Amino acid sequence: MKETLKAGADVVKKHPCFSEDAHRRFGRLHLPVAPACNIRCRYCIRRYDCANESRPGVTSRVLTTREALERVRVLAERDGGMNVVGIAGPGDPLANGTTFDVLRSVHREFPGLILCVSTNGLCLPDRLEDLLEAGVRSLTITINAVTTETAERIYSWVEYKERRCHGREGAERLLRNQWEGLGKAAAAGLVVKVNTVLIPGVNDTELPLIARLAGGRGAGLMNIIPLIPLAELGHLPRPTREELHRLRNECSRFIPQMTHCRQCRADAFGGIGEERDTDLEMINAMIGEEYCEMVL
User: Fold this and answer.
1) What is the distance between the alpha carbons of residues 203 and 209, in angstroms, rounded to a whole number?
2) Can you name the residues that pair with 194 across neighbouring β-strands?
3) Which H or E run contains 182?
4) Which domains does the chain have, with CATH numbers?
5) pLDDT tens digits, one per residue of 120-129
6) Strands 136-142 and 191-198
7) Are 272 and 266 in contact (CB under 8 A)?
8) How far apart are CA 80 and CA 183, in angstroms?
């Protein structure tokens, strides 16, 4: 138990998404290797090749396993402050087999880097052992609801074990797996953060309960993210700073709050809020199929 707590504290101390102090000193690299998604969020539009947008689900391109590993090699050599390699999309990492190939490859070659995954949690109970085997040490789960009625308003459908579910059935399956997966991940020693998209008039009243349940099941941090009005929920207003502050203050009674999130792209690199796009453009130019064949 003491070793697990020490390892968790070390992750928090060096992970820019889990510590406000760490985000001033350390950087992270998101590898966009997971295009497929197993749920349909009503606020989500995923556009690849959209470099002018900075939000979750967006990437300039989807990388192969070899391209992802070479990107880590190049940036690890160039940037001594890069402590974290994460996979956050552009779809759901646990719905993509490439995710695990990449994680295992990076862990073998760079065991000192913190591996992190961001997921909607639908497949977490089924893939937790695979994450642990691949060397993942930190996990972010996006949980936007507690009740099925609210979840139905947020998600159009859920696809689990090759079956697409709509309405209440899909909402129940997603919520069941999210909360089960969170508890098991925390019990297994992973450092867990919960992301929650604040959707005014839809889930705002449930956020304190999400915070209470997440903290009770072992999550160490909550990140309340303001809705970016898009897709089916594009008509809703973006939450105000006052609304965010009020809910973060209320939820902090149950779990510590993250306040420095910048809603990163799936191919983000650098410190939070200090994206180094020019470095990625250079690396994209370097990494092609012929180059990967040469170095591998």
Assistant:
1) 10
2) 141, 222
3) helix 167-187
4) 2-289 (3.20.20.70)
5) 999 999 999 9
6) parallel
7) no
8) 34
Place of tokens 């696809």: 159
Consecutive H or E run containing 98: helix 97-109
What is the pLDDT, as a whole number, of residue 266?
Answer: 67
Give residue 162's identity as a one-letter amino acid code.
Answer: E
Q: Which two tokens stand for residue 4?
A: 């697990």
Q: At 244, which amino acid appears?
A: L
What pTM, to 2 d.p., does this model score? 0.83
Range 22-35 burial, b when 16+ CB lie within 10 A, else e: bbeebbbbbbbbbb
For tokens 């105000």, the residue is 240
pLDDT tens string 125-151: 999 999 999 999 999 999 999 999 999
The CA distance from 2 to 10, in Å, is 12
How many CB atoms within 10 Å of residue 234? 12
Contact 46, 36 (CB under 8 A): no
* Contact between residue 280 and residue 241 where contact means Cβ atoms under 8 Å apart: no
> What does DSSP say about strands 39-41 and 155-160: parallel, antiparallel, or unpaired?
antiparallel
Which tokens in the block code for residue 82? Answer: 């890069």
Q: CA 137, CA 146: separation in Å to the nearest integer? A: 26
* Residue written as token pair 């209440």: 168
- Please give the full DSSP string across 144-173, using - where no structure is assigned: --SSHHHHHHHEEEEEETTEEEEHHHHHHH
Give the orientation angle of helix 97-109 with respect to helix 65-78, to 10 degrees: 40
Under 8 Å between Cβ of 75 and 82:
yes
Q: Cα dist. 103→119, 149, 191, 265 in Å?
A: 14, 36, 17, 19
Handedness of CA 46, 228, 54, 117 (dihedral sign): negative
Closest-CA residue to 165 (of 119, 198, 122): 122
The CA distance from 6 to 9, in Å, is 5
The CA R_g of the chain, rounded to the nearest whole Å, is 18
Residue 94 DSSP symbol: G
